Amino acid sequence: MGIFGKRRERVLSLASKFDAVVVTNPKNLFYLTDFWGGGIGIVEGDSTTIVTSVMEEYRANETGKDVRVVPSKNMVTAYQTVAKKLKGKTLMDQYDPRLKGTVDDSVFLEARRQKDAEELRKISQASKKVDELYELLEQEIQVGRTEFEIAGEVMRLATTEGLSPLASEGSLSPIIVASGPNAALPHAELSGRKVRIGDMVVADIFFRFQGYCTDCTRTYAVGKVPEEWTAGYQAVFDAQAEGIKLVKRGVAAKDVHAGVSAVLKERGLEKYFTHGTGHGVGIDIHERPSIGATSTDILADGDVVTIEPGIYVPEEYGVRIEDTVTVGKEVKVLFDYTKELLVL
């Protein structure tokens, strides 16, 4: 059985009390078929069917794997076709008034959490490409350049490398380049602020490659910065190292967060750490498991998570260091780009 058959089998095992699973979220359809587009997936027995419009028929056949494509005149008739086909108990991955069934997205959240070899390969490739973006960024962060200008150069290279931009849930911007006091905003929007001597610059880069995300953050100093700020950087550096050290299968995610927080507390900086330690990464930039004070998740084989402590001193400076790591027999950090404080 191929990878997509195994994914289908996994979804059906998690939805065993249902006769069929209906997929209308493009991300879940992609997970099951490798086709990202408009269509309705029907998962039952040993088959996955995509009912889609004639407009999407070619792409669905071209990119879809282990799937049968049923074209329909348009999406209205596609929904009618699916409604007629389904009988009995049906699970839907998201609410849709045109279809009847039980809505429960937890099946896909759970299925997608454990990454298979193909998913890990794509996330690793995405990460290597982001390493290259940081090499470029090191040259592009210059006094007098705006955050928009710097981000534009990163986006240009990302596109040539086959990376697809996406906004995080907390920001409209496709990446974060936050200079000076903007660095004290965890989800800073890109702005026309010009980089100045004495700035800390937080650069958070997150892209998809062949459908899968990776997430990385580095912080730079531009010229000489106060010793207090370099001490803050060292605290975050040490906290992140502790977090990666604590990541192991079978470990409670909240314990990883507690260990990271403890390092910052020792330095008197815990009050400036205003978010969780990390999150799962996959087709979405934020997936299960969550790594924070209230998380109930236990880290397991196949998890891909971020470890990203930060401190944010209002109107002064911010520091965040983030890596995406895989959980398994060994824990692997997916980025090679330095985490030492670079003074540009």
Q: What is the CATH level 1 assignment of the largest domain?
A: Alpha Beta
Residue stretches low in confidence (pLDDT < 50, at least 5 long) are none
Helix content: 25-40%
CATH topology of the largest domain: Creatine Amidinohydrolase
Distance between the termini: 52 Å
- Count, helices: 9
CATH homologous superfamily classification of the largest domain = Creatinase/methionine aminopeptidase superfamily
Class computed from helices, strands and strand pairing: alpha+beta
Total count of strands: 18
CATH architecture of the largest domain: Alpha-Beta Complex
Question: Top keywords for this entry?
Answer:
344 residues, alpha+beta, Creatine Amidinohydrolase, Chain A, domain 1, Creatine Amidinohydrolase, 2 domains, 6-stranded mixed sheet, 5-stranded mixed sheet, 9 helices, 18 strands, 24% strand
